[in-house]
């Protein structure tokens, strides 16, 4: 029965009862007016009429109370149930169903509600399964990459990690996913080394990050030693305004460079062996040349002398190059051993000048020395290596200066306790674009006509850095260059 019929029926019954009550009252009144109220004939009639009035009145009151109690509840309860069910749906409980059978209207409402809940449940299940499928797909892609990858959010929580990375850091997936990388790093050295780039770790010594970034990471996993290059990527996505980018986290990628490292070390060994092997025949050539120059075995004519000089010059160059290559292989293979001793800077300067005298005379370059009159601290350094660096810088200054030019070599003490040794020329200078690259192996400024290997400055920097010093350049095109080596006094 619907609510309207229920209400109509209840009100109809009440109206009928009231009508009956009125009729009975009228009958009672007629009896009273037709007969003498105290007469015996009126007594039973009156009593019957009064009894009916009481009965009907009581029934009216009962029905009224019944309606007062039941009617609001029959509407209120289903509405409450409906409100609760809507709240459940809002809380993503899509399994909620309604059973309202108190009236036709409410059973219709519950039927429609249940239909809506069912649709929402199906939709949710399908989007959830779609999302799960996409997540699985992404995980499969990440896992199929055979280089270790770790994804972190801004709070340094590990969001994803592939099997390769788990293998390398030697942890299980459930130990890392959704866990703080900082917490894990307290008991995992490798992870600590990896995230050091992204966060400051309390208690960690401050390291030269630039230098560390260049060095490959050595990892011992699967019973073998591997080398990895670490790459950091910052993940950003468009913010709410769709324009500004919001940082969402980081991705750490490790590239396995073991193969290249092995090839590189094979190359270093090869260069080192060849350079070593070449030194003996070159020395023999130079000795033979010295004999040729000796008048005792016969005088050379002018043409022969020119040829002998050219052979000598080229042999010296070859010897220089093999020396440079040997030095480079020493640094690359990590076999560079310093033999430090107390040295006066002026002695190193004098050595460099002596080594370059012939070349300077050849191009008529004037070498000036700038050395303070007051006492300058001594150096505790491998004098052979530092002298080699100064010789190389001076040789460059001479080679890259115009004929009849001048170069300055000198040393000074700084207030903060360093010795700076410098070589200055007034040659063509170096384009600022190349100030960094000239210190790379084999790099030569494009268009450089003077012969060279591109190794001198890179070896020089390695030698100076091995002494915890710095080698820098200050140069302007057309004005010349100044190379400064800074070492702790
Ligand atoms: P090399 O001189 O044997 O080529 P270096 O490593 O000593 O190798 O120098 C690298 C490059 O830097 C040189 O090829 C040259 O182009 C540039 N360079 C070095 N020193 C000077 C200088 N004093 N003036 C101008 N250019 C220089």
TrEMBL record:
Example GO BP: osmosensory signaling via phosphorelay pathway
EC number of this enzyme: 2.7.13.3
Domain HAMP: 73-125
Main EC class the enzyme belongs to: transferase
PROSITE patterns xrefs: HAMP (PS50885), HIS_KIN (PS50109), PAS (PS50112)
Transmembrane portions of the chain: 7-31, 51-71
Span of domain PAS: 134-177
Membrane topology: Multi-pass membrane protein
Name of the protein this chain belongs to: histidine kinase
């Amino acid at each position: 029965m619907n609510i309207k019929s229920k209400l109509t029926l209840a009100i109809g019954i009440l109206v009928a009862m009231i009508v009956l009550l009125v009729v009975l009252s009228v009958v009672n009144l007629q009896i009273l007016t037709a007969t003498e109220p105290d007469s015996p004939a009126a007594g039973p009639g009156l009593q019957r009429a009064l009894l009916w009035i009481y009965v009907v009145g009581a029934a009216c009151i009962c029905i009224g109370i019944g309606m007062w109690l039941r009617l609001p509840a029959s509407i209120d309860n289903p509405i409450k149930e409906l409100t609760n069910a809507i709240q459940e749906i809002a809380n993503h409980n899509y399994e909620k169903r309604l059973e309202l059978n108190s009236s036709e209207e409410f059973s219709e409402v519950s039927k429609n509600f249940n239909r809506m809940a069912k649709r929402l449940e199906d939709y949710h299940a399908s989007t959830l399964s779609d999302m799960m499928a996409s997540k699985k797909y992404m995980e499969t892609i990440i896992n199929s990459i055979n280089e270790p990858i770790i994804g972190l959010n801004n709070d340094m929580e590990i969001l994803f990690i592939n099997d390769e990375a788990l293998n390398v850091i030697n942890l299980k997936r459930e130990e890392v996913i959704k866990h703080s990388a900082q917490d894990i790093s307290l008991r995992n050295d490798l992870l600590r080394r990896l995230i050091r780039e992204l966060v400051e770790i309390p208690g960690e010594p401050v390291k030269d990050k630039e230098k560390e970034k260049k060095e490959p990471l050595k990892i011992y996993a699967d019973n073998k030693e591997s080398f990895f290059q670490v790459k950091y990527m910052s993940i950003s996505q468009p913010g709410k305004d769709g324009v500004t980018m919001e940082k969402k986290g980081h991705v750490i990628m490790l590239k396995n460079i073991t193969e290249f490292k092995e090839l590189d070390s094979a190359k270093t060994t090869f260069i080192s062996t060849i350079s070593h092997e070449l030194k003996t025949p070159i020395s023999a050539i130079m000795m033979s040349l010295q004999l040729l120059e000796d008048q005792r075995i016969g005088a050379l004519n002018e043409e022969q002398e020119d040829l002998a000089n050219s052979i000598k010059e080229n042999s010296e160059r070859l010897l220089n190059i093999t020396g440079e290559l040997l030095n480079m292989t020493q640094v690359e293979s990590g076999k560079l051993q310093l033999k430090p001793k107390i040295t006066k800077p002026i002695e190193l300067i004098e050595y460099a000048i002596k080594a370059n005298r012939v070349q300077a005379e050849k191009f008529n370059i004037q070498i000036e020395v700038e050395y303070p009159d007051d006492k300058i601290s001594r150096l505790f350094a491998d004098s052979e290596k530092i002298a080699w660096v100064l010789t190389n810088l001076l040789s460059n200054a001479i080679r890259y200066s115009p004929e009849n030019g001048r170069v300055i070599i000198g040393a000074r003490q700084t207030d903060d306790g360093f010795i700076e040794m410098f070589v200055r020329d007034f040659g063509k200078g170096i384009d600022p674009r190349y100030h960094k690259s000239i210190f790379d192996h084999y790099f030569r400024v494009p268009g450089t006509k003077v012969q060279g290997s591109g190794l001198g400055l890179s070896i020089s920097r390695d030698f100076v850095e091995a002494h915890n010093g710095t080698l820098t350049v200050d140069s302007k095109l057309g004005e010349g260059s100044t190379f400064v080596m800074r070492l702790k006094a």
